[in-house]
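Continuing the batch. This is chain 6 of the set; chains 1 through 5 are on the previous pages. Same settings as before, nothing changed between runs. Recording input and output for traceability.
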Amino acid sequence: MGTQTDKLVIVITKGIDSELSSVALTVANGGLTSGLKVSLFLTSTGIDLVRKGGQTMTQVAPLEPLAEMIADFQNRGGVIWACPPCVKSRGYAADDLLDGVTITGAAAMHEAIKAGAATLSF
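Output for chain 6:
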């Protein structure tokens, strides 16, 4: 039997090239709607989801456009963390990312998990 939590961390390793990014954001927004405190940890090509303009490059019908899902997520208090080496390896800096995205290592995610957050990975 698991313990109850109101926190969820979703690790997203897929970017604009995969429908899994849209699924992950749908799940993340659903978590917020359910009253969870949701954080996203973006790694690998998931970083491109928060590169300015990157999220406008794809849409998986019938889901909402990525840009709308990300804006909705942030406007409702969702937290987005971006893996520092993943950002750097793509030649991006903080100014290249959407406002409100924090470049931080896995320690932020680990703290949330230690505080009882459930986890999902896409």
